[in-house]
Amino acid sequence: MIDLHVHTTNSDGDFTTKETLIEAQKQGIEILSIADHNNITAYEELKSLPLQDLFHGTIIMGVELEFTKDGRIFEMLGYGFDYDKLKNTEIIRQGMVHATIEGETKILNELKSICDKLNIKYSKELSITRPNYMANDVLLDNILTYDENQNILKQLGIHDRGSFYREHFCEPTSPFYINQSEGKFDVFYVVKTIRDAGGKTFLAHPFSYKLPDLKKFLDELVSYNLLDGIECEHRKNTLEEIEWLKKYCDEHGLLKSGGSDRHTESQFMGYSNNNKKPIDKSLVQDWISDITPVYSLTNAKGKVI
User: Fold this and answer.
1) Model confidence band, residue 302 (pLDDT cutoffs 50, 70, 90)
2) In this predicted structure, what is the pLDDT of residue 99?
3) d(CA 57, CA 106)
4) Which of 15, 104, 121, 248 has the most Cβ atoms closer than 10 angstroms to its Cβ?
5) Do the beta carbons of residue 220 and residue 227 sit within 8 Å?
């Protein structure tokens, strides 16, 4: 079983790098990649951890970089890049603290104003207390605790962090939409940044963007040679969606990847299809051997390289 898409507290995950490795070992993960948002701090942290005592699999370098297209936010996964080359790029320098307290406080206040207009109750003491504490997650977690909000949240189709972020916070037609594209990098910059550092580019969780014509979107990215592959298996993908993406990859000569996109305890590492389908190593067998591991217990030294 593999998982090439997990998050830590270095971006918006609930678990530290060490805790993530412990869970990966517990779940029997053979190949792991930590893909934090615009942030590769976890790979620096690996150097000070007793890896042989924590994880017996292989770790490859990964990151999830945000990009803008047509006024919307998307994500590109990068794998197998050179850490020293990527860490000095502008997008990583800006993202080493994925969300600042000041910036997220401003967004939280905007979201509170929207709640006021919609008569949605929230705690008046609600605030951003640490870096990488995302305003949309902070608000959503809080408003879900009030029984009096349940009817309107149900009407809006808001039931978890994912639905709130993708279908409202990032969706221009939603009353909760906040334009975040200002100051973000476009897809051409992000792809060039990953490839200049020697990495491969994979579009993250295509179905999560709820595009009216996903094939058209993918076709455009392929026409500009922006994709090495696609994340075909993801926690939220149905079996039908997984097969559709795999077929698209086969028809267009693209590589396949998979990951849980784990942020919280309820999201099972190494599983797609709503925590039901283990992500098998065979999914990446045609390219993973080309990637030099950051760490592997099978290496002679079993250390970060």
Assistant:
1) low
2) 59
3) 41
4) 104
5) no
Where are the domains positioned within the chain?
2-97+186-296, 101-169
- Four-CA torsion 14, 258, 25, 264, nearest 10 degrees: 20
Token output for 38: 């615009």
Q: CA-CA distance, 61 to 211, in Å (whole number)?
A: 29
Q: How far is CA 239 from CA 115, 213, 251, in A?
A: 36, 19, 18
Contact 136, 112 (CB under 8 A): no
Interstrand relation of 271-272 and 277-278 (parallel, antiparallel or unpaired): antiparallel
Q: How many whole angstroms separate alpha carbon 118 and alpha carbon 217?
A: 33
- Which residues are registered as beta bridge partners of 111? none
Q: How far is CA 199 from the centre of its chain?
A: 17
77 in Cβ contact with 204 (< 8 Å): yes
SS3 147: helix
Task: List, for residues 77-89, the tens digit of each pLDDT value.
Answer: 999 999 999 999 9
Q: Nearest Cα to 98, choosing from 56, 128, 142?
A: 128
Contact 281, 30 (CB under 8 A): yes
Per-residue pLDDT of 169-222, as tens digits, reads 988 899 999 887 777 899 999 999 999 999 999 999 999 998 999 999 999 999
Work out the pLDDT band at 300, boundaries 50, 70, 90.
very low
CATH 3.20.20.140 matches 2-97+186-296:
yes
Provide the strand spans (E) within the chain.
2-6, 31-34, 58-59, 62-69, 72-79, 200-203, 229-234, 255-259, 271-272, 277-278, 295-296
Give the amino acid at 255: L
